[in-house]
Amino acid sequence: MLHYLLKRLFLAVPMLWLLATLVFLLSRLLPGSYASESILQEGNGYYAKGSTTDRTLAYQQYLIRTGQNLPLFYFSITSSASLPDSIFQIIPEGAQNTIQQLAWRTGNWKEVYTFWRKLQELKQQASPTQLQAFAPYLRTITATSDAQQRVQAARAITKYDATLQPAQELYKLALKLQKQQGSLNFMIPSFRWHGTANQYHRWLASLLRGNFGTSYRDNRNVTEVIMEASANTFWIIFTSMLLTTLAALEISIKLVQPKYNQWRKAVMPVLFLIDSIPLFVLALLFLVLFASPAFLQLFPVYGLGYSHGGQSWLEQTSRTLPYLALPILCLSLAHLPYLANQFYNALSEAKAMDYTRTAQAKGLPPEVIIRRHVLRNALLPIITLLSDFLPGLIAGSVVIETIFAIPGTGRLLITSVQARDYPILVAIVLAVALAKVVSHVVADVCYAYADPRIRYKTAS
Amino acid sequence: MRKLHVLGYSLLLLFLCFCSQPDRVPDEVRVRLAGEPETLNPVSYNTAGSLQVINLLFQSLMTVDLADDQIKPALAMAQPDIVQRDSLTYISYLLRQEAEWTNGSPVTAADVAFTLKVLKAPLLNNEQMKPQVAFIRDILIDKADYKKFTFVCEGYTPEMELLTGDFFILPAYLFDPEGKLEAFKVSDFAGDVSALESNKDLQNFAARYNSADYARNKNLLQGSGGYILSEWVPGQYLTLKRKDDWWGNHVDDNTQALTANPQQISFQIIPDNTTALLALRNRQLDVLENIQAAEFNQLKSDKSFTENYALYTPDSYQFAYIGLNSRLPKLSDKRTRQAIANLLDISSFIKVSQQSYATPTVGPVPPAIKPYYNNKLKPYTYNLQKATALLQAAGWQQKTDGWFKNINGKEQQLTLELSYRAGNTVFESAALIFQQGAAKAGIPVTVQAQEGSLFSQKAKAHEFDMFFRSLSGNPFVFNFKPLFYTSYANDGPNYTGFGTQESDNILDAYNEAEEESDKARLLKRLQEILHEEATFIALYYQKDRLAVHRRFGNLKISGLEPNYDVSSFTLKE
Question: B486 and A128: CB-CB below 8 Å?
């Protein structure tokens, strides 16, 4: 048994690593980054606080400072005409597409990057009147896919002012690119090795040292942030799970007995009805019914109340309980129908066995039969269902947390996705995955105890 | 089992204890925040909620008085003196004599210099504010008076005066107790700073400054404002307490821009709008802004609510507009775009999605600002005949299944994809109304909600047909250059590609114009051009909706965010 457990845990480690790596790499596919909206400020209307060039430069500095300009992984397999990540990331988003397209068409990203840099230089050096005159040609250069048009536009710019050095160089580069147009270089894959200067290596190295990193938003330690968030919702979810399990057990035990047949005909449809109500509707319904002055006002509307320092544990709990009542009730009610139904099915299957008939023949009362004999034999599916609870404790419930304004892990996950706060995102996914692995192992142990017929042997 | 039952029922009884409202100081104002203010650092704050809180803790040289939407001096004594010499502009300020930090030490020009260094230095978490002060090359501190200083700025634009007064001044004694930045001068950070990145002092300062301490620590985030952060429970609430003897109460001038009236201000973090509304009805909140239109109407008709709360609908400076991608061949003809504009039923939009809490507008200038608003123009209305006539004039032919035109040798149908940021129910209903209206004209419209950053990305890459967006402005400066100048159409904020020779000239001339009449004339002509080109079609200016408890007076309700000034609230006797 011990061997089996150790083997399970041992195999879980590479699985967790694989999961974390996948989440790490896939999450980076999201466009934008945490500070892109606030630094680039392109949505700002009437007056720009700072020029666009300054803002683009500041954004590049931000990416370099936080290490987000580094390549993602140790190696990348792309077309040999693609720009390398470290350069690509710092090109402003609006221009990324055009440069990438141009690079693929001509097959030489170095030339294309130089061309683009020369274009930016020209825009900076030209005077406002010149820029106005160049505007249609600049538009052609960036928008067109026809090399001939690009060359013609570049030549037209040189005609304006012979002394403008960048214009001359731009024209030469445009001619060079025209020669390379249509090259099939982009079909050749290239394997680029990045060494240890990549985001994944940094993350993994600090993870192995036990450091999950710091949040992008306020630079706090990720472990601290997650512990704080899960501490808020741990008791809510734990209590609601306990309540749901006890209630589901009681209901299913009662309904399986023949004398409660009429009850079963009434209770099952009601449970089905409750199951079909979405969780947020249920939560809002509870709020409106039990926390609103228009109806009954038994509970506070939101939050966890105020903390007054120096109170004993009992005082604090009794002060927070009214705030927890509605969320707990809501969660319990939401999960009750499913659990009750599954428990009922498991019990009724076990009840159809021969030993139940024997126990009846022995003269035991029906309640005792169910509780002492049938329940034990129906434990396996029950344990499976309950093993899903452990990851739920850590994952939180985003709907309850948003509606009742309780800051928990669910809401933390959603806000970190929206804000592209990758360290917290990956850490939460890892924590939940770890909880799932542990819960499966615990479930296996429980199976062995519940059913002595199950033996776990290592491969002989 | 019996014991379990007893346990269960007693647990239930424990829950059913009637909630007691927590003790409240009568002079406490409860305000709602829609999200956690992740950081309260005055340089790297990121949300509107955090800005509202930081405004109570820290101050800038100039501030906006929401009572009359005017810019008034806060830390500065008066409006600055501006002198232009050679290619530099010299902007001089004099700090108030009474201004002091929490520990009683005076606010001096050295603190302003320190703030500039923090805003411009490399390696620090300041990339958001750095571009705003990039034009300030240096600061000259008066030798005789430590409260007097001059900014040396490059070039001149009309916004410079505003921008110099718009950043929070940091206390050097809290942010740099070891004086690591004292060896540097502000002019060191102008231009190429790569050499400074290896400086040990700067690196040590950066390590300390970038840490979580300067985002959350209430002992370090104390400024010259009237309040200090007394408690912050992450994700739940923040409490600010008024300083005991704030210098702002002893200032002689009566501009009323410096206020700190409530004893305690509590910011409650409630993400869900329905919960916030319930909390308001439950009297757990004193102020709630951003109330949905339908619920606002309900509140208006609720007598028991209006007894305790007053409802306001100030005109905001936020407007909604439609952008058409004029680079696309099918939309490059002005008449096509005008035809689409004639299929917009703006009054329907306002009635359905805003419940009439909006004013139609012809351009990006608010109708409330009468000197600049072109009232000779009429906003677009739904006119099917005019739209059909314009389409025909633009060369489209109406066939059985739509409008067709020969573009670049190919027969193309006029279809539109209308995109907007997902989650915005106002735009969703407006989009559906437009879809119906366009269907009557024979134009199939696909409505697409896109995730926030994807929406921005597509706008920047110019991969859209038509979008709905909203824009926030202010009444102080109208510099439409980033939005409408042709050079910004390539990779700048001019997503729609609007621009003619004349509009460019107007935008340049507006920046140089001195006289109000000249500015008004130019802006009115700009609005005419915008109306005609129909690339950037402004729809309506929104009204904000908020409710404030009646026990407070002197609210300073205004169209500018956050619509009220909580520091000026006074308890009515």
Answer: no
